[in-house]
Amino acid sequence: MGANGELVYVGGYTGDKGGEGEGIALLRRDPASGVLTRLGVAARTPSPSFLAQHPTLPILYAVNELESDGTVSAFTVADDGELTPLAVQPTGGSEPAHLSVTPDGRFLLAANYSSGSVAVHPLDPEGAPGERSDLLDLEGGGPDAERQRGPHAHMVIADRGSVLVADLGADRVWRCRLDPVSGRLTMLPPAITAKPGTGPRHLRLAPDGTLLLVGELAANLTWYRPAADGSLELAGEVAASVEDGPNFPSEITCGRDGRFIYVANRGPNTVSAFAWDGERATPVAEVPTGGDWPRHMTLLGDHLYVANQLSQSVTTFRIDRETGVPEADGEPTAEASPTCLLRWTSMMVR
After folding, report:
1. What's the pTM?
2. Going from the N-terminus, what domains does the chain have, and what CATH number goes with each?
3. What is the mean pLDDT of residues 32-57?
4. Partner of 127 for a Cys bridge, out of 9, 50, 57, 232, CB 3.0 to 4.6 A?
């Protein structure tokens, strides 16, 4: 892939969720210019709204965000980016919105948003997910009568020996222990108990170890550090956007050197850039995405790519290395109902 650039997969919504996508799309990225070129549909699968990759095998995973019986799908990845179906497994819940692979490549974790649960799927030596080894039901709610009547798992990742689950409904980031033999989860005390009505959506660990959290309902960016009891305590917060009107921030990312943090804002349709000094996030810029409903974004080198779900496009920004400010670079790339962007490089294939 080196001479031809990098491959970027795009997950999105298909007709069953009111979207116009056909499955997982494939783009080629020029690392120097940042230009994206659409190559077509790599796999037809229902509403693959979030994508993940195996840490060592050429396997791509997708959630199928179905309202009744959610599933996860696995695909083998060819050198040219072609996807071949490998396995499909039910997650045991409804509308899975996120998934990730444990660093050792042995388990696939999926967050069932609507039913508020976390599924664990063992992975065989070829990377194929098997039947669930566990399904952990979360508990609790929040003050938002419409959005927090019960738990809503929105993100799940394995980090430093624990599994972290961002629960939009219960205002918690749960911490679990994953047994490496049985594949079962044991609930531990919460990593974060957020302010009521925060709506934890996605989190990110800064290079300095600080946990960064975007609150969809409170429309804020908060950060947490270890407390004496092992939990994480609030160390600061800032509004995700300075624009007037409703805002439902979606994604958070940060640069490799940890100097800047970026938050995508649905409503004002902007990306906010914050300078991070290890103590606080200071707003430095807020720029229009050039599209509607920025659902997801990814930072690749000096370029930030934003998936505008409702305007059917992916916007490319070039990041100023000194100021961290994103600047739109060319016209948005047309893509149907995009909700997730995942870079794939040949370095992942052994």
Report:
1. 0.96
2. 6-348 (2.130.10.10)
3. 97
4. 57
